[in-house]
Amino acid sequence: MDKVVIIDDEIQVLNAVKRLLRKLPYDFEFYSEPEIALEKIISTGADVVVVDYRMPGMDGLEFLAKLNEAKVECIKIVMSGEADIHIVAKAINENGIYKFINKPWDPKELIDAIYESVDQNQRNIVGKHLEEIGKNEVLGEESSARKWLSDKE
Predict the structure, then answer these.
(1) CA dist., res. 17 & res. 6, Å (int)
(2) What per-residue confidence (pLDDT) applies to 14?
(3) CA–CA gap between residue 63 and residue 136 (Å, rounded)
(4) What is the per-residue DSSP string for 87-115?
(5) For residue range 96-142, what is the model confidence (pLDDT) as tens digits?
(6) Which of 10, 88, 101, 136 has its CA 20 to 30 A from that of 18?
C-alpha cells in the first residue's frame, strides 16, 4: 500500500488533515516532530511526503534537503501559510517538490494533490523499472545486442 507521511508541528492541523484524508486508500503516518519523521522515513521509506514549511527546529525545506541527502526517493509537497515566491522557488529548485499548497488549504486541493502525488510516484517507479529493463536488454549478458555482437566476432 502506498505510504503518505504528513509532517506539521501544529497538532490541530494534523488532526484536521487526518479527518480529511481518513477515507483515502493509503497508509498514512502523521508526525508533529520533523526529527522523528525524518528518522522514520529514512529507515522505512515513504511514497509521498507532505511537510509544513514553518516549523520550530527544522523548517520544511531543511527537512526535504535532509531527505535528499539521505537519497530518499519520494514525491514531496510543501504546505505553507507564507506564499512568498522565494520560498516556493527554493522549494522547487533546491528540493524538487512536486506541489506547493497554500495554508489554509482547500480540502479538495489537498485530496487531489495526494492522489496526483501517489500516481506520479507510481509512474516514477514504473519508469525506473522500464529503464533498468532497457539497460539489461542492451547491456546484459543475454541481451540481443550482445548476442548480435558475438555473432559478428
Answers:
(1) 8
(2) 96
(3) 35
(4) HHHHHHHHH--SEEEESSPPHHHHHHHHH
(5) 899 999 999 999 999 999 999 999 999 999 888 877 777 666 656 66
(6) 88
C-alpha cell at 32: 508533529
**CA-wise closest residue to 91 among 63, 117, 121:** 63
Which has the closest alpha carbon to 46: 8, 14, 75, 15? 75
The three three-digit cell numbers of residue 132, written as one number:
533498468
Instruction: State how far the Cα of 55 lies from the Cα of 86, in Å rounded to an integer.
Output: 17
Cell of 41: 522515513
Detail the DSSP E strand segments found in 8-149. Answer: 27-31, 48-52, 75-80, 99-102
